[in-house]
Structure of Short-chain family oxidoreductase:
Amino acid sequence: MSLLDGRVAVVTGGSSGIGRGIALAYAEAGADVVVCDIREEPKEGGAPTHEKIESDTDSSATYVELDVTDPAAFEEAMDAAEAFGGVDVMVNNAGIWRPEEFLEVTEAEFQGMMDINLKGVYFGAQAAATRMVESGGGSIINVSSVNGIFGNGNYPTYSASKGAVRTLSYSLAHGLGGDNVRVNAIHPGAIKTKIGPEGAEETSEEQMAQLNAMIPLGRQGEPDDVAGVAVFLASDLSKYVTGESIVVDGGWTSWR
Ligand SMILES: NC(=O)c1ccc[n+]([C@@H]2O[C@H](COP(=O)([O-])OP(=O)(O)OC[C@H]3O[C@@H](n4cnc5c(N)ncnc54)[C@H](O)[C@@H]3O)[C@@H](O)[C@H]2O)c1
């Protein structure tokens, strides 16, 4: 028996990076997966996530092209999950990051980031919770960031959006506990993905060494490091855990 046998998971931003890592880990743990994204091809290359799941695991997967800024779009994802038996696990992972100068941020830039990082999580959770309340329960996992815990003057909109995801998760856990829907947040630290703006300079060896020196475990994380915690939160191992915020950062925030 695997941890997620018989479960159905929906993962937004599941084509690349952390979402891809979570989707693959869920499938390996026995879940069928609905991968939602605005792009099918992983940013880092390789087979699309749903194809890799179908070829490498015993689980089923499908891809739904979905922009999380459109609340109505989640219905198609929920229907795709219904075809597998109904959503048990919803991972609101899709997000963007960019450095910015606070005094120059425009309203459109602010709104664009909030629409993906916060509104996308809000209405993704709402769509999933609606089905979960009807079916008797489920687990919602919202991907925030260590920047949802501490601030960073280099990306104030991102930090604000991620802090809101944390307190949203607490509120939903409170509101939905009576319906057996658990809601938790994950706060990744520095994870090796291609989240930076297109064309941005690669992190230099020197910057990498400086960053690693601040992380007690001495290295940046891999999507797989976050996926393990997402499997825990999706499974019955965490059946009495809700309204929790789990930091996955190699110890970085523990001594800041
Ligand atoms: N990489 C890190 O160091 C790090 C740290 C903390 C938090 N996070 C968070 O983890 C999550 C995943 O980030 P990642 O590093 O894997 O990034 P990524 O860019 O590698 O992957 C994000 C995926 O989300 C998709 N996406 C973007 N906008 C979308 C939209 N409007 N609708 C649907 N899909 C959309 C992208 O196409 C991409 O496939 C984000 O919420 C991010 O803020 C990442």
Observations:
- Residues 108 and 191 are 27 Å apart (CA to CA).
- Residues 12-13, 15-19, 37-39, 43, 66-69, 93-97, 116, 143, 145, 188, 190-191, 193-195 surround nicotinamide-adenine-dinucleotide (CB under 6 Å).
- The helical segments are 17-28, 49-56, 74-84, 107-135, 156-176, 205-214, 223-234.
- Strands lie at 8-12, 32-37, 61-65, 89-92, 138-143, 181-188, 245-248.
